[in-house]
Write a structure and sequence with these properties.
Layout lengths: L1 H4 L6 H22 L6 H23 L3 H6 L1 H18 L1 E3 L2 E7 L2 E3 L1 H18 L12 H15 L4 H18 L3 H16 L6 H17 L6 H24 L2 H9 L12 H12 L11 H4 L11 H34 L3 H26 L16 H19 L5
Antiparallel strand pairs: 1-2, 2-3
Helix pairs in contact: 2-3, 2-15, 3-17, 5-6, 6-7, 6-8, 6-16, 6-17, 7-8, 8-16, 9-10, 9-11, 10-11, 13-15, 15-16, 15-17, 16-17
Length: 412
């Protein structure tokens, strides 16, 4: 064990970064819990215990043979999918959603562990030469691997976590060999869906569709007529289906989406959290008010600041400099993940590393974006910093996989 830990291929910078984020998380949760009307000593101590356990999980994953990870990836995916189904049947409520599953005295979120299972299963499928995404037909199985758990999680309803699965598929497909033109036309319906939202002008969607029609004609020589028609039809369908899908969302989900555009329209209800999060974030100035001196947080103007809105506490107490430092550490994690994906010899490990990096950058972008008021409130935690055991364990296991891949970088 000691010999493996001092392996020259061990990424010690990655381990140090995780320790820094865990320490920041425990400190910030201690500060935030005072204003959240929760037991300050109890909650930060819980996070400290979870962080220690997560560190043990991270190191334990390093010692797993990567061939073992490859061989059991489909089985692990099936087990996690079964747990998701059990959550639907026997799950307990938490924050208005059936996200929790009780296992004796323990309570955990299967959706968190499903992220790991989906990345490993998708990486195994795409790492096979026969399954490389060189055509639209070969995207059927990867789509099923991703969208099956995504549908169960969205039904809980947990829209934020379900979007993580949607985000990982495109970078992994690109890394596995999908050309940029096909990737662009796969992403295009997403833009059509966004600009066809019922609270945006209809003309914005018309211009988006027009642009894609022009691009489809320009690239017609590379694809068949059926492919061009399919791409245009997908954009039109996305534009028509989005208003219908928006109407099927839960009322609180609709409020979360519309409020980030104009939170001042309902400052005492749906816009309260976003408005106060931005005030707390900006009140720290350049260097912040100091650890434990965040009066805006302490007085309880920012509910649930120890979970989804923990970055507001960082901004108030550590200021712009501290916020940039925390974001820089997370960016370093993502950077190391991409580097590991680039240097490993095994396609399975390389593709999985890209998926892991995508999870961290997506969590950071959405969490910080909703605190800054440029993204809807989706409930995604900030890795290693937001309060929560399942999230901390999952993030640590993902980093453990990156460390495992780094050590085995020369294995084919």
């Amino acid at each position: 064990m000691i010999k493996l830990l001092i392996d020259r291929n061990m990424d010690y910078g990655l381990i140090l970064s995780v320790c820094v984020l865990m320490a920041v998380g425990v400190l910030m949760i201690h500060s935030a819990s005072a204003g959240d009307n929760v037991d300050s000593a109890n909650i930060w101590q819980k996070q400290l215990v979870w962080s220690i356990m997560a560190f043990v999980v991270m190191i334990s994953v390093v010692f797993l043979p990567f061939k073992f990870l490859y061989s059991l990836s489909y089985i692990f995916y099936g087990v996690c999918l079964f747990l998701l189904i059990m959550t639907e049947i026997r799950g307990t409520m938490g924050g208005g959603s059936e996200r929790w599953l009780n296992f004796g005295p323990m309570r955990f979120q299967p959706s968190e562990f499903m992220k790991i299972a989906t990345i490993l299963a998708l990486a195994r499928w795409l790492s096979s030469k026969n399954n490389r995404p060189t055509s639209y037909k070969k995207l059927l199985v990867p789509s099923l691997i991703v969208f099956l758990p995504m549908a169960f999680i969205a039904k809980q309803p947990d829209l934020g976590t379900s979007l993580v699965f949607f985000a990982i598929i495109f970078p992994m497909l690109y890394w596995a060999g999908l050309d940029t033109v096909r990737l662009f036309f796969l992403v295009a319906p997403i833009l059509s869906a966004v600009f066809s939202a019922p609270f945006l002008p209809f003309s914005s969607w018309v211009w988006i569709v027009f642009m894609f029609v022009v691009l489809a004609i320009l690239y017609y020589s590379r694809y068949t007529l059926q492919g061009m028609i399919f791409n245009i039809g997908a954009n039109i369908f996305a534009g028509i289906a989005t208003p219908y899908a928006f109407g099927k969302l839960k009322p609180y989900q609709q409020k979360r989406i519309t409020t980030f555009i104009n939170p001042e329209a309902d400052p005492l209800d749906s816009g309260y959290q976003i408005i106060n999060a931005k005030i707390a974030l900006g009140s720290g100035g350049v260097f912040g008010k100091g650890l434990g001196e965040g009066r805006y947080t302490e007085l309880g103007f920012l509910p649930r600041s120890h979970t989804d809105f923990i970055f507001s506490v960082i901004g108030e107490e550590f200021g712009f400099v501290g916020s940039i430092f925390v974001l820089g550490v997370i960016f370093f994690l993502v950077y190391r993940g991409i580097v590991i994906a680039s240097v490993v010899k095994n396609p399975f490990m390389s593709i999985a590393a890209v998926g892991i990096s995508t999870v961290f950058i997506f969590h950071m972008f959405v969490n910080v974006g909703m605190v800054a008021g440029i993204m809807p409130v989706t409930g995604l935690p900030l890795p290693f910093i937001s309060y929560g055991g399942s999230s901390c364990m999952t993030s640590a296991a993902l980093i453990g996989l990156l460390l495992n891949f780094s050590i085995n970088r020369h294995e084919y």
